Amino acid sequence: MSPLTDKTIHGLAAFPAMASHGSSQGIHEEPSGNEAVSSSQNTADNDGVSLPASPWVPEQIGLRQSVSNYIRSLFPFLDWIKHYKSHWLAGDVIAGITVGAVVIPQGMAYASLAKLAPQFGLYSSFMGAALYWIFGTSKDISIGPVAVLSTVVGTVVEDVISRPETRHFPPHVIASALSIVAGCLVSTIGLLRCGWIVDLLSVTSLSAFMTGSAITIFASQLPSLLGLTGFSHRDAAYKVVMHTLQNLDDMSLDTAVGLTGLLLLYLIRRVLATAAARLPEHKQAVFLMSSMRTVFVISFYTVISFLVNRHRRQNPLFYVLGTVPSGFHSVAAPTLSAPLVSSLGPHLPATVVVMLAEHIAISKSFGLANNYAIKPSQEMVAIGTSNILGSLFGAYPSTGSFSRTAIQSKAGVRTPAASIITAVVVVLATIYLTDVFYYIPRATLAAVIIHAVGDLATPLDELYQLWLISPIEVLNFILGVVVSIVVGIEHGLYVTVAFSTVVALYRKSNARGRSLAQARDCRVVGDRVMDENGHRNYGHYGTFEEV
């Protein structure tokens, strides 16, 4: 057999292994020019025949396969949709309808935190649900407006409006621009497969941020709960509380509506939690009933408001939500002028951190609880893409919601297709139920928000456990909460992250260690342990102390 034929057969035999290796290891690096030339010259010198470098063909096929796999990984629904079973549909439909009923009042309530009209909360609820199932890897998570991120958006809107060069932009335009810019950043991180970056955030920093946010949101909603006006609800938390106490003499019927609504929410949860403990066989049904308490309370007080105010729409007895436009009237390309984008820059770190940290933490925890693994990088792509495309429909930044994710999981969701059902429910409500939304009491919406953020605060027993582990972390926690309350939640996040970084660097540079023993090469000869040359006798095997 000629050398050329022998080399050809050898190359064909090696091809499958090399192609498989290229596919499993990802995209190959192209050989440098010198390496390629050298390989070609060596082949010609050896056989007298000019042949291309043998790894070139399998490397190119491996490259194409890797690119194909990467593109396919951006659309995870292609993997599960072809295996979809008909008996999964019932669970997805029930979960989708349940979450849809919950996200409608929550979306309108959270829009007020973002300084936006209620309909923009509906737009965000729809787009998050309509897009996530295409790109996401979690079957449980529910995407839409959340309290903390909405508060960050509200802070951004107020700051941008206060600037002379951007004060002419409407709030919803600012929010949509923030959605697309933050979405692009998050998508880029995900496309580069840098999901590990979320792990750099310490648990203490996130806990302090969430607790400070909960207190700030509670303070901002307290005047609405009591029906008090005449002062800013967006000042520092301690100032809002002080102004509220100074104006308690102005309480009205709104106070009764808000406080009774808040009491009813907690009462329903407590009663149904007791029922679930006593009736474990009906635990799931009781949980679903409890998850609908927001819908029940909103509906109950809306009916009361309608009966009381239907003949006095221009002068209601208590503050109501007012006119909510039906349909999607804000569908348009977002405005991205240079002054607007530059004014968003200082707020992007906090927006991206909140968007990512909350979503990844929720999706990971529910994936672990339900025995499947999510892909953090792909989740970033899902969140980023949802926010980018959502901005075209007037949506503002959204992310995963813990409360709605828990509801969706307990409702028996089987696949991300449940989000499609949720989107349909929100669309129907946006088109056909906006006249009903007119009579929703604002005090009741404030009660819903306060009830929702109550679970964000870190319990005292967890803080005590943290103290036992690392007192300095408790100091970091307290510092972050205080800064969030006094200055603002964004500054609280920056302070805790900086503090955690300094502590980590200090611990790294001052790490203490002790050498346990000096390693020596030795061997066993019979029952004796000798050095590697067989000269020094360390003792009988199993009796010596130092080796």
UniProtKB/TrEMBL annotation:
List, in alphabetical order, the Gene Ontology terms for molecular function in this entry: secondary active sulfate transmembrane transporter activity
**UniProt keyword terms in alphabetical order:** Membrane, Transmembrane, Transmembrane helix
Q: Name one GO cellular component term.
A: membrane
Q: Where is the composition biased (Polar residues)?
A: 35-45
Spell out the PROSITE patterns in the cross-references.
SLC26A (PS01130)
Its transmembrane ranges are 86-104, 116-135, 141-161, 173-198, 210-231, 251-268, 288-308, 417-440, 477-506
Principal location listed in the UniProt entry: membrane
* Residues of the SLC26A/SulP transporter domain: 89-478
Q: Where is this region: Disordered?
A: 22-49
Q: How does it sit in the membrane?
A: Multi-pass membrane protein
The name this protein carries in UniProt is Sulfate permease
- Organism for this UniProt entry: Moelleriella libera RCEF 2490
The organism's taxonomy opens as: Eukaryota, Fungi, Dikarya, Ascomycota, Pezizomycotina
